[in-house]
Amino acid sequence: MHALCSGSVQGGTDLEKHRDLLVVENERLRQEMRRFEAELQELRAKPVAPCAGCEHSQESAQLRDKLSQLQLEVAENKGMLSELNLEVQQKTDRLAEVELRLKDCLAEKAQEEERLSRRLRDSHETIASLRAQSPPIKYVIKTVEVESSKTKQALSESQARNQHLQEQVAMQRQVLKEMEQQLQSSHQLTAQLRAQIAMYESELERAHGQMLEEMQSLEEDKNRAIEEAFARAQVEMKAVHENLAGVRTNLLTLQPALRTLTNDYNGLKRQVRGFPLLLQEALKSVKAEIGQAIEEVNSNNQELLRKYRRELQLRKKCHNELVRLKGNIRVIARVRPVTKEDGEGPDATNAVTFDADDDSIIHLLHKGKPVSFELDKVFSPRASQQDVFQEVQALITSCIDGFNVCIFAYGQTGAGKTYTMEGTPENPGINQRALQLLFSEVQEKASDWEYTITVSAAEIYNEVLRDLLGQEPQEKLEIRLCPDGSGQLYVPGLTEFQVQSVADINKVQGRALSTGTLSPWLWDQQPPRLYPEEAAALG
Ligand code: ADP
Ligand code: MG
């Protein structure tokens, strides 16, 4: 019994000790936590970048960002820490409660034990007193046996009393047993409480360990981040320094070039400043030169024009001389090839012969007798249209120079007049070629001279002069002498058309031919009209 009591007291003391230990541990943990917080605060206050003062503010801004991120993480962890603290606090409170309850239980148990031990003591005392009283009773019984029936009664009474006392002892024993059971259950409760305390302790330990681990990992993370940022900043700073060195050397090499460029620029600036004056002077001199050149060209032109006129005059003179020498009237013969109409045989082929050495002599057989003629020129049947035209070409130039020219074809029908003058479209004669030359010459001189070419066509038939381009072709016209005394003839009222090209002339000629006596139209028929639309078109 004593051993049990002392055991329970011993258990209470252990629990208290343990609680005290826990309280102390708790206090230590709090202190540690405060220390960590202070350290954290210090770290936060400390400048993160050891490269403070570095000129690369961008890098430092990045580092600052990283730091603020880390601070955020620390704040999060702090929140977690405070949660853990709260948990620890709750657990400590619950522990204190359990301790209180345990204390109450222990006090109750102590009281109960006290009460039970008191009752046990009483019971022992009673038993002892009863034992002390027993011998006299035995003795009484003995004496009763010896002495009398009266004593026998007293003996039975005492036996009953003894019985009662024995019952009381049994009862006491029962009570004692119950109390022992109670004590045992209280011991079990204590064990349970101890287990609970141990569990709480282990939980507390675990929470503490967890907190420490988390703080440590946070610390490590922070340190690692700072170290990484620092290393990166150092590497980048190194690169920047290298760049800076390169730029510096570049700058050093560029400086002389810059100096020369500046010098050049200044020189150019000076030149540019003087440029307008220079330009003005140059312009003035150029203007003067140009003026002079223009004057020179003008005078040259004048000179050339003078020379040209003189040459023109000379040419005219030469031409006139040539015409005078050749004769104002020249007679040229052209012999056409033999045609079917001429018949066959030597009469036809030998009618005309030529002089091999002189192209101005022609031999004829007249009534079987040879007759020779001397002309200005004789063309054989082999002569082309171009050969014939070349001979009269100079007359066209005379015409442009202002001379009156007349080419007159004479011969019997079928002799080749029309062929020589008009020709065929594939092989034109003198008229077409002369007109072509006339217009090309006029075109050439168009820049210096203004020419007006007009066409008129007249016919003398049966002593009657008629205007082939007039509105009234049957009207009779007169030939008169010019009143200016030049000896020239003119036909008053003769229709004239101004023409610009050979095509225009051909058109007019077509009209004249259709109106003429030899045209397929007869006088009683209406000739093709040129008025007024065509005339307007010809201008
Ligand atoms: P005319 O006008 O004098 O009456 P044509 O000019 O009509 O004569 O000529 C008569 C024929 O002779 C035509 O068929 C023409 O083609 C031809 N003829 C005239 N001269 C030549 C010549 N030099 N070469 C070839 N054929 C010619
Ligand atoms: Mg003819």
UniProtKB/TrEMBL annotation:
Its main subcellular localisation, reduced to a broad class, is cytoplasm
Question: What keywords would UniProt list here?
Answer: ATP-binding, Coiled coil, Cytoplasm, Cytoskeleton, Motor protein, Nucleotide-binding
Signal peptide per UniProt: none
Keyword match Cell wall biogenesis/degradation: no
GO biological process terms, alphabetically, are: microtubule-based movement
Q: Which InterPro entries match?
A: Kinesin-like_fam, Kinesin_motor_dom, Kinesin_motor_dom_sf, P-loop_NTPase
Family annotation (SMART domains): KISc (SM00129)
Q: Which GO terms describe its cellular component?
A: microtubule cytoskeleton
Q: Which domain of life is it from?
A: Eukaryota
Q: Please report the stretch or stretches of sequence annotated as the Kinesin motor domain.
A: 328-539
In this chain, ATP is annotated as bound at G411, Q412, T413, G414, A415, G416, K417, T418
- Can you tell me where the transmembrane regions are? none
Subcellular location per UniProt equals: Cytoplasm, Cytoskeleton
Q: Which residues form a coiled coil?
A: 19-115, 162-228, 283-314
What Pfam families does its record include? Kinesin (PF00225)
Q: Name one GO molecular function term.
A: microtubule binding
Reply yes or no: does the keyword Nucleotide-binding apply: yes
Give the UniProt family note: Belongs to the TRAFAC class myosin-kinesin ATPase superfamily. Kinesin family.
PANTHER family the UniProt entry points to = KINESIN-LIKE PROTEIN KIFC3, KINESIN-LIKE PROTEIN KLP-3
Q: What is the name of the protein in this document?
A: Kinesin family member C3
Lineage in the entry? Eukaryota, Metazoa, Chordata, Craniata, Vertebrata
